[in-house]
Specification:
The complex is a heterotrimer of chains A (298), B (319) and C (328).
Chain A: H1 2-9, H2 22-53, H3 59-63, H4 77-108, H5 114-126, H6 131-145, H7 152-176, H8 180-188, H9 193-221, H10 225-229, H11 250-258, H12 263-294
Chain B: H1 3-22, E1 37-43, H2 48-61, E2 65-69, H3 73-82, E3 88-91, H4 97-106, E4 110-119, E5 121-125, E6 133-135, H5 136-143, H6 154-157, E7 167-170, H7 176-186, E8 197-198, H8 202-210, E9 215-219, H9 221-226, E10 231-233, E11 235-237, E12 242-243, H10 247-251, E13 259-267, H11 268-273, H12 275-286, H13 288-294, H14 302-318
Parallel strand pairs in B: 1-2, 1-3, 6-11, 7-8, 7-9
Antiparallel strand pairs in B: 3-13, 4-13, 5-9, 5-10, 11-12
Chain C: H1 11-14, H2 21-26, H3 28-34, H4 39-76, H5 79-84, E1 88-89, E2 96-97, H6 100-131, H7 134-149, H8 152-171, H9 181-205, H10 209-217, H11 222-233, H12 235-251, H13 254-259, H14 277-285, H15 294-327
Antiparallel strand pairs in C: 1-2
Helix pairs in contact in C: 4-15, 6-9, 6-12, 7-9, 8-9, 9-12, 10-11, 12-15, 14-15
Classes of the chains: A mainly alpha (298), B alpha/beta (319), C mainly alpha (328).
């Protein structure tokens, strides 16, 4: 029995005989090739962008505005500030709403009720709706309530709606990871359920929520389609100043420059791409650091 | 992380929100030498870059003024202009009767200022080696509505051309360039085949044409000028020999029928009520030659310049 | 580990505020809901419920925002012409509103994308799930995540300035112009490789070890086990991942807007340019679009079609996933 048990639980290693057959080797080769292809694509993309754009990774890129006359010194200043403002507003809109909804769904909702089931299904579908549809939704809503479409607030609303499902799902998973004992201990000490959530469960789930939110925001940073819908393709050469100001964001500025045929614009577009990828990398690194350092191990 | 920290963060977020909201809106200064505010323009993608350059130069003098330039096409620009949404409409053709009627109905009064000349250029890729000159009849053969689905190769246009597919690029229907070209070449404004790569963004057209030796497209002269290393301008023969587009041929009238005036339409109300609009328009008029040169447009000749100043004077007196 | 409330000792001293341990153990969520108490808490609960309800509101909002202008559109154009007509020229003097050209554009880019994403995504998934040693895994998963996180505008740039001129025209001698559904489709495929890879890997990892062990015990090598045992067992999850990836490809905008072209024609060959539904929406939206006009309504009609198509694909994928969950 012991030997049978040993066989059954032995780690799965490749059996030498079977895996050296010609077919197996070819198969492995095919698999390695598929991996290689993905890595190659990523590498080519990054190298290509870098080679095209490294000459323009200068101070002008950050401090100057876009220009049609002088693409050699054009910069993405308006886009960088616009992106920053829009992302901050998106976070302000999406995170409280998303966390609240996630808390409700995870802690208080009875999953057997029909309305909660609808919310669940709805959430998974919303997470897969094309980004441009969120732009159309915001455009339609903005029109009916009289909000101007080409302003920072409208863009932030569109992006917030886009990442809301992701934040809700992240919150739920983070809260699920908190053990029941924490909640029960709090209740046992006389706290109400809401106090329990606010003071015990939620704070313990914050690292997970923060990680997921930052990743969601980094996705919003790279989105152009919904903002295009809202009229974001205006030539902007000034800093955005307020929620009702005209604006542009990095991906739209890049889109604009990519469409210009002159070589100088192609270069500055690549430089802006490098900049944007760097920002995204930074955001994701911060998210991972938060997860690794602050995530409680239960 | 406890409740105190959570509420601190919430307070921080709320104050950030308030701070951002408080900085809202643009304000206009009242009088004095320094202007501020926004000048909203929209319209032709042919004239757009000229206005953009004017805006950039103007910003060097008046850094508080933001000139925004959208390119919805001449037709789209007029729609917004007659609704009062824009201060200036860039146009590569004159306003037509219908549009003028709408403006009148909505109470929008305007002054038409001719700011440059354009030699609408028909282009192929610089790699194209079989066509240098096209007659207006050949152009009509290519672009007429009847050609849709039927004229698909170069040899159908002229038997001397190779039997290669005809790849067409041109402006969309909102474009003044489209209106003007179809009017002159096909005899009726708006009459055109529809199976081509249509885009209001001339840069996309430049990219498309320069990418294939069999491509043909048309757009404003400035886009050819800026990309003359990857494009070839086709000389046009309207009966008197092949004429190439240039500042000279546009000015002396030999480049027909594709030489045309470029306009901006200024709302008299905006000019009177908003000092930054008035300042910008005055600057545009005064420095017209310099702006046109920097943007690689065909500048006005002397007669046209004095006409411009007269028309601008009408604006001032109307305000 | 027990997670029920113990009932040792004298009850009234250890259970606070009338907590009944039995009712908690039977129905924890219901128990929590009963103990609402203070007024401020009621307000907070309303806020929480409202936030959750917001997500439903969003879906309803999407439907209405798309439906209202689409109904306006259908008042002027018959639905038959819209869905079956093959000439798309909504802004020309001799206008036509047959959406088939846009649909063929979308289909071509999606199919080409899947032809790239399925083999390479599955290959990566199989390797990660069955073969990869820990070191390679730690390198490979981030690579896939980075691929997934690159903004689509960057992919569009890649398609326009590298894939079309260098890869297609120079390296592979496929003659394409600046714009083609092939260039856009290839890059679209690269973008959705991570989607296929990660979901398929999840599906394959969910197959119980006992199946693999049984296969090994019967003398099969790893390749056989993977192909004949694990793969078929995970096929539903893999199919769902492919459908989801296709749905992403259908909804993608920036790559096709930059690289596929603006010629709305019934695409008959991949080297031709073509316009997709999303490309048309992007192009029209950046032009003139005054609300209430036919152009505006057309834009939303195409948007509604896009939404319905992706929704159907997501629902199909979801139902496939739910079916397999029952098996294990």
């Amino acid at each position: 029995m012991a030997s049978l048990g040993a066989i059954a639980t032995a780690p799965l290693k490749a059996k030498r005989e079977g895996d050296k057959s010609a077919k197996s080797i070819v198969f492995m080769g095919v698999l390695w090739f598929t991996i290689f292809f993905s890595v190659l694509c990523l590498g080519t993309l990054l190298v290509n962008a870098f080679f095209d754009g490294w000459t323009r990774l200068d101070g002008n890129l950050i401090t100057r505005y876009s220009s049609t006359v002088l693409p050699e010194t054009a910069g993405a200043r308006a886009a960088i500030l616009g992106s920053a403002l829009v992302i901050v507003m998106t976070a302000v809109l999406a995170i409280p709403l998303g966390v609240a909804a996630g808390v409700y769904l995870e802690e208080f909702a009875d999953p057997r009720r029909w309305y909660n089931k609808i919310i669940e299904v709805n959430l998974t579908n919303l997470a897969a709706v094309p980004a441009i549809v969120y732009g159309m939704l915001t455009a339609g809503v903005a029109l009916s309530i009289g909000l101007p479409r080409r302003v920072v607030l409208a863009g932030a609303i569109a992006l917030a709606l886009l990442i809301l499902p992701v934040i809700i799902i992240t919150t739920r998973e983070a809260m699920r990871a908190v053990p029941r004992e924490i909640r029960e201990g709090s209740l046992a000490l006389g706290a109400t359920p809401l106090q329990t959530v606010w003071r015990q469960t939620l704070p313990s789930a914050v690292p997970g929520i923060a990680t997921g939110s930052i990743i969601a925001l980094s996705r919003a940073l790279g989105e152009a389609a919904p903002l295009l819908l809202l009229g974001g393709l205006v030539f902007v050469s000034y800093d955005p100043n307020g929620l009702f100001s005209g604006y542009t964001v990095l991906p739209i500025q890049i889109y604009d420059w990519v469409k210009e045929p002159q070589l100088a614009f192609q270069q500055v577009a690549s430089a802006a791409i490098i900049l944007m990828l760097g920002l995204l990398l930074l955001m994701n690194a911060v998210a991972i650091v938060i997860r690794n350092r602050y995530q409680k191990r239960w | 992380m406890n409740a105190r920290t959570s509420s601190r963060i919430a307070a921080l977020g709320a104050s950030a929100l308030l701070f951002v909201a408080a900085c809202g809106g643009q304000e206009e200064s009242s009088g004095g030498d320094s202007l501020s505010g926004e000048v909203v323009t929209d319209g032709s993608s042919t004239v757009g870059p000229l206005t953009t350059v004017a805006g950039e130069f103007f910003k060097e003098e008046q850094s508080g003024v933001n000139v925004s330039v959208a390119t919805s096409g001449t037709g789209g620009g007029f729609e917004k202009f007659c609704q009062g949404s824009t201060d200036i409409s860039n146009a590569s053709r004159p306003i037509d009767e219908e549009e003028a009627a709408i403006c009148k109905k909505e109470g929008v009064e305007y002054v038409e200022l001719r700011v440059a000349t354009d030699a609408l250029t028909v282009v192929t890729s610089s790699e194209n080696d079989f066509v240098d000159c096209l007659t207006t009849e050949e152009l009509n053969t290519i672009w007429a509505p009847e050609a849709e689905g039927k004229i698909t190769t170069w040899s159908q246009v002229n038997p001397e051309f190779p039997d290669e597919p005809l790849e067409l690029y041109g402006p969309g229907t909102d474009s003044g360039t489209f209106d003007y070209f179809t009017d002159e070449i096909n005899g009726e404004e708006g009459a055109s085949r529809s199976d081509y790569n249509a885009s209001e963004d001339d840069n996309v057209l430049v990219q498309g044409v320069s990418g294939s030796p069999n491509a043909l497209g048309y757009f404003g002269y400035t886009y050819y000028e800026e990309n003359s290393d990857s494009l070839k301008a086709i000389t046009i023969d309207s009966g008197d020999g092949c004429v190439a587009p240039s500042a000279e041929t546009a000015a002396d009238g030999t480049y027909t029928p594709l030489a045309r005036p470029l306009f901006i339409y200024v709302s008299t109300k905006a000019y009177a009520d908003e000092p930054q609009v008035a300042g910008f328009v005055d600057f545009y008029v005064e420095n017209n030659a310099k702006i046109a040169e920097a943007a690689q447009y065909i500048p006005l000749n002397d007669d046209q310049s004095s006409e411009l100043e007269e028309a601008a004077g009408a604006l001032e007196s109307a305000s | 580990m027990s997670s029920t409330i113990a009932t040792e000792g004298s009850s009234s001293q250890t259970t606070p505020q009338g907590v009944d341990p039995d009712s908690y153990n039977k129905d924890p969520a219901g128990f929590l809901r009963q103990r609402r108490g203070r007024y401020g808490e009621r307000v907070a609960m309303v806020a929480l419920v409202g936030s959750a309800g917001l997500s439903v509101l969003v879906t309803i909002g999407i439907f209405f925002a798309l439906l209202v202008p689409s109904l306006e559109f259908l008042r002027e154009i018959s639905i038959r012409e819209f869905l079956t007509g093959d000439r798309w020229a909504p802004t020309f003097a001799d206008a036509s509103f047959g959406v088939l050209p846009l649909v063929t554009g979308t289909m071509w880019t999606t199919v080409i994308g899947l032809l790239i994403a399925i083999p390479f995504g599955l290959g990566a998934a199989i390797y990660l799930a069955e073969y990869a040693p820990e070191r390679v895994r730690r390198f490979l998963k981030p690579v896939l995540e980075v691929l997934a996180g690159i903004p689509s505008v960057v992919y569009g740039y890649f398609a326009l300035y590298f894939v079309a001129p260098t890869v297609l025209n120079d390296l592979l001698s496929v003659e394409v112009g600046t714009f083609s559904v092939l260039a856009a489709g290839l890059v679209l495929g690269i973008m959705i490789i991570p989607t296929v890879a990660s979901l398929s890997e999840d599906a394959m990892s969910a197959v119980p070890q006992s199946l693999r062990q049984a296969s090994f015990a019967l003398g099969a090598n790893r390749m056989r086990t993977t192909l004949r045992v694990v793969f078929p067992a995970a096929v539903s999850g893999i199919t769902a991942s492919i459908v989801l990836a296709a749905s992403r490809a259908v909804g993608e905008t920036m790559i096709v807007a930059l690289a596929a072209g603006t010629q709305a024609q019934v695409v008959s060959s991949p080297t031709e340019p073509g316009q997709t539904m999303t490309g048309f929406i992007a192009q029209t939206a950046t032009g003139e679009s005054s609300p209430g006009s036919l152009t505006y309504n057309t834009l939303f009609a195409v948007g509604l079609l896009l939404f319905v198509v992706t929704l159907l694909m997501n629902v199909v994928a979801g139902s496939i996933v739910r079916r397999i969950r029952e098996v294990y």
